[in-house]
Design a protein that fits this description.
The complex is a heterodimer of chains A (304) and B (566).
Chain A: H1 16-36, E1 41-42, H2 44-47, E2 49-56, H3 64-72, E3 80-84, E4 91-96, H4 105-116, E5 122-130, H5 132-160, H6 163-186, E6 190-191, H7 193-220, H8 230-240, H9 242-262, H10 265-299
Parallel strand pairs in A: 1-6
Antiparallel strand pairs in A: 2-4, 2-5, 3-4
Helix pairs in contact in A: 1-6, 1-10, 3-4, 5-6, 6-7, 6-10, 7-8, 7-10, 8-10, 9-10
Chain B: H1 4-29, H2 33-42, E1 52-53, H3 55-58, E2 60-67, H4 79-94, E3 100-104, E4 108-114, H5 119-127, E5 132-137, H6 140-154, H7 165-188, H8 190-203, H9 209-213, H10 215-219, E6 220-223, E7 226-230, H11 234-242, H12 244-252, E8 258-263, E9 277-284, E10 289-290, E11 294-301, E12 311-317, H13 319-331, E13 336-341, E14 344-347, E15 359-366, H14 368-380, E16 387-395, H15 397-450, E17 454-455, H16 457-486, H17 491-523, H18 526-558
Parallel strand pairs in B: 1-17, 8-14
Antiparallel strand pairs in B: 2-4, 2-16, 3-4, 5-10, 5-13, 6-7, 7-9, 8-9, 11-12, 12-15, 13-14
């Protein structure tokens, strides 16, 4: 029988201050980076605007200034233009963010390219054009859905466990999402619509992980603490479920890392968000969720 | 175990059902692309029972249209229904396989066109905002007069009275001159002629007020009796036509009720040259009829007469339209009637005779494609309200194909790693987990196929979470069984206890996720809902496979044994 962890006795809660400190420092650093970078790199999904990815027949690098000037002349601000992949790929992505409602930006950009780049034909690989109203609605819908989802979690865990467990299972979710957002902020990765799905997945994963440990804790204190300290029981519960935690995380990472390494461009950032989320979601159970419970127990004893 | 046979029966029945539900999807996707296209086009009902791939995976176009109520006269209640009907009609004309059209709220229509090849045309047809109208084309002399007045105005000269002979003479003169120039260019290659022409004009400037500015008049050229403008000059000419002083001058000359309109298709009069031109029409601004009088229009091949074998468009009008059309045609024989959509002239057929009875035929040098396009424009009729495209997403087929191929490859590798790990770590029991996960996936995909649901990128996120949670449920149980074994229990009792003790964790973890799933289905939109649907179906399936299927297999495999391969 192959076994990774057998009868481990790690003192997870002994590191909780260090861990919480690290997490707070990381979140602080990401906020700082966020301010320095001038906010998130929001895709047009949320911010409104048009992104077009196109492939040219011939090298386009020398023509980029002309493209930039031509689009700028449309009067919707400076476009963001970046090349995609290798230089001889001749693929570029153009983003215009300042887009009033009802303007056919896609058509306008096409026309600019057709007239200013005569002789270098192109095919449009991808277009995303979102009016400002829809962008705002998407953000609002995602936020409303998340708030309701969190309330539902609080209610369910309060009933099945205790309100203290509910609070201790929800706070780490914020932690996990913040850290994931932080990494996206630091590396200026783009927040797109699939990112919302990734965040929901991270929440689902982290919650599952926390509930499993809480369940073990609940079972271990069914008949009271019986002379043990809360910390001993809590550490014991984490250790007892440790091999399960590691196996589940490792198998999840198998698919995610494969998706990140081999997936298409559209899926890469998405897989990255999930990978970060799974790691952080696993980390947050022993180092955030259980310490919150311990702290709560000190103030208002949960278990006698 | 009690009723083991019955339980196996249930598992086999579920397995058989899922496979049966997935057969149509497997059959469809194992066909070649061309065959798939045929099925999509000819028998779309067959697609109702297959697992569809979202636009982000297979490529295609998604548009969200919003009715612009600010441009409506009154608060029209069924405006969205009419807009929907007409957009639906237009999409069907496009011949796209499996289009999805959906009303959202009272102002929005969502259009999804999977696998579309030419998104520009699609957008053009769908997003047309203005109404279809029939406008009388003014005769060539009137157009000439208007052009001369404009030329005089923009070059700063005095505009003659409306019945001045001089203007007409000038116009005729100009026409000849321009015709000669075009002829020059047609025969002697454009570049040289262009330069030569400029020289000439520069030379005899000064004295001639028309040539001194030269700009407007030289941009508007002749092609037979028609006016044409080089595509690159279209914008500049439009600017001239829009000028206030030009408009005032035309008003003073009694030409106020007319408008210049551009033709739709570019023309290439110069053989061997890439230069394209657009027709410039001069029409009466007030339309003779609007598009809503059209009952039907169809492209056909002319069966007899002089044009036998050529493409034509047959048009059928409603009763009111037929009466109006008879009057209009009776009064305007030999004049042209422009078919105008969105201020663009799609065609301007000449009225040969009075047409009564509500059936008309448009003939000309059409290709069949052009005839079809024109009949689409006619049939689509008048869009009852202007719509704005407020969201547009297009994924080209190559990008979608790339996403699918890479997605499948990464899934195969990820799954292979999980299989390897499970077998190494849990041995025979690992195989049981794999079967449970496999059945879990089959149930999710089969349920989706049964409802003709669509798999998108967020859906894949849901599937990944599902594999994680399904694995987790089984790992929880197995680790528990190992613990029980370590405490010295028999195999039989360890399995029993393992399942029992892991139960609360599995139930609570999964039920929280299902609750979240329902909330997201209820409150979420778009990608969030797609994710939630998969989550809810999948976790229900996961509970079944972990607590029922894998337990059945574990007990049957190891119940009577002294040792367990876990």
């Amino acid at each position: 029988m192959l076994q990774i962890f057998k009868n481990t006795k790690y003192n997870f809660l002994g590191y909780s201050k260090l861990a919480i400190g690290l997490s707070l420092a990381f979140i602080g650093a990401s906020i700082l980076m966020l301010i320095m970078n001038g906010g998130f790199n929001m895709s047009v999904d949320f911010a409104g605007g048009t992104t077009m990815q196109m492939k040219f027949e011939q090298p386009v690098r020398d023509q980029l200034p002309a493209i930039r000037a031509g689009i700028n002349e449309l009067g919707f601000g400076q476009p963001e233009i970046k090349t995609i992949g290798l230089a001889d790929n001749n693929e570029i992505q153009i983003t215009v963010r300042n887009q009033p409602e009802g303007v056919d930006m896609e058509g306008a950009i096409r026309t600019v390219l057709e007239s200013s780049l005569a002789g270098n034909s192109f095919t449009v690989l991808r277009t995303e054009s979102v009016g400002p109203k829809i962008g705002g609605e998407l953000t609002r819908d995602a936020v409303i859905a998340s708030i309701f989802a969190l309330l539902a979690i609080l209610l369910y865990v309060s009933i099945r466990f205790k309100p203290s467990f509910a609070v201790a299972s929800v706070i780490p979710l914020f932690h996990d999402v913040l850290i994931t957002l932080g990494i996206f902020a630091i590396f200026r990765l783009e927040l797109t619509l699939p990112f919302v799905a990734a965040v929901l997945t991270i929440i689902g994963y982290s919650l599952n992980d926390t509930i499993v440990v809480f369940d073990r804790l609940r079972e271990n204190v069914k008949n009271g603490l019986r002379g043990r300290t809360f910390r001993e029981v809590a550490n014991g519960s984490i250790n007892q479920t440790l091999s399960r935690t590691i196996i589940t995380t490792v198998t999840s990472l198998f698919s995610l890392v494969a998706l990140y390494v081999l997936g298409s461009d559209a899926i890469k950032d998405f897989a990255l968000a999930l990978t970060i989320g799974v790691v952080v979601g696993t980390y947050s159970t022993p180092f955030i969720a259980v310490p919150i419970l311990e702290w709560w127990n000190k103030k208002w004893p949960i278990i006698k | 175990m009690k009723n083991a046979g019955f339980r196996f029966g249930i598992v086999l029945a579920v397995l058989a059902l899922t496979v049966w539900l997935l057969v149509p999807s497997i059959q469809f996707y194992s066909k070649s692309e061309a065959e798939q296209e045929n099925i999509r086009r000819d028998t779309p009902h067959k697609l109702k029972r297959i697992l569809n791939l979202g636009l982000d995976l297979q490529g295609g176009m998604r548009l969200v249209l919003e009715i612009d109520r600010s441009k409506l006269d009154s608060d029209d209640k069924d405006v969205i229904d009419r807009a929907y009907a007409i957009i639906e009609n237009r999409i069907n004309q496009l011949g796209v396989a499996e289009p999805i059209l959906q009303k959202q709220g009272r102002d929005r229509i969502i259009v999804e066109l999977p696998g579309i090849k030419d998104e520009k045309v699609a957008k053009e047809v769908i997003g047309k905002t203005a109404q279809l109208e029939f406008n009388l084309v003014r005769d060539d002399a009137t157009r000439e007069r208007a052009l001369s007045i404009i030329e005089t105005t923009v070059s700063g000269g005095k505009v003659e009275d409306s019945d001045s002979e001089g203007a007409k003479d000038k116009a005729a003169e100009d026409k000849e001159k321009a015709e000669a120039e075009l002829a020059d260019k047609l025969f002697s290659g454009s570049e040289a002629a262009e330069a030569e022409k400029k020289d000439k004009e520069g030379g005899d400037g000064g004295s001639d007020p028309f040539a001194s500015a030269g700009t407007f008049r030289t941009m508007v050229q002749y092609y037979g009796d028609m006016s044409i403008v080089k595509t690159e000059d279209v914008r500049r000419v439009s600017e001239f036509l829009r000028r206030d002083d030009v408009r005032r001058a035309l008003d003073r000359a009694g030409l106020g009720g007319n408008s210049f309109l551009w033709g739709n298709e570019p023309v290439t009069p110069e053989r061997g040259s890439a230069a394209t031109y657009k027709y410039l029409y001069y029409v009466k601004s007030a339309p003779e009829m609007k598009g809503d009088v059209i009952k039907n229009a169809m492209a056909n091949i002319d069966q007899g007469g002089m044009n036998a074998g050529k493409a034509k468009v047959d048009m059928e009008l409603n009763a009111a339209g037929a009466r109006r059309f008879a009057t209009v045609t009776a009064h305007n024989v030999q004049k042209c009637l422009a078919i105008v959509l969105d201020s663009t002239v799609y065609s301007a057929p000449r009225i040969q005779a009075k047409i009564s009875g509500g059936r008309a035929e448009i003939t000309g040098s059409f290709t069949m494609e052009e005839a079809k396009a024109l009949s689409i424009i006619l049939r689509a009729g008048a869009l009852p309200a202007p719509v704005n495209i407020i969201e547009e997403r297009t994924v080209g087929p190559s990008l979608g194909q790339d996403a699918i191929e890479k997605g499948i490859l990464s899934m195969i590798i990820g799954t292979a790693l999980i299989i390897l790990f499970m077998i190494v770590y849990y041995q025979i029991s690992g195989l049981i987990v794999l079967f449970a996960l496999f059945l879990n996936m089959l149930i999710v995909l089969a349920t989706m196929a049964a409802f003709g649901a669509t798999l998108t990128l967020p859906g894949i996120a849901g599937l990944i979470l599902l594999i994680s949670m399904g694995t987790d449920a089984n790992v929880l149980i197995f680790e528990r069984i190992r613990e029980e074994l370590a405490q010295g229990r028999t195999v039989r009792s360890a399995i029993e206890q393992g399942y029992q003790n892991a139960l609360s964790a599995i139930i609570d973890a999964n039920l929280t996720s299902i609750v979240v799933g329902f909330i997201l289905m209820w409150k979420g939109t778009g990608p969030i809902r797609g994710f939630a649907v998969i989550l809810v179906i999948g976790i229900t399936a996961s509970l079944f496979t972990a607590l029922f299927v894998s337990k059945l297999l574990m007990t049957s495999a190891f119940h009577k044994r002294a040792k367990i391969s876990i």
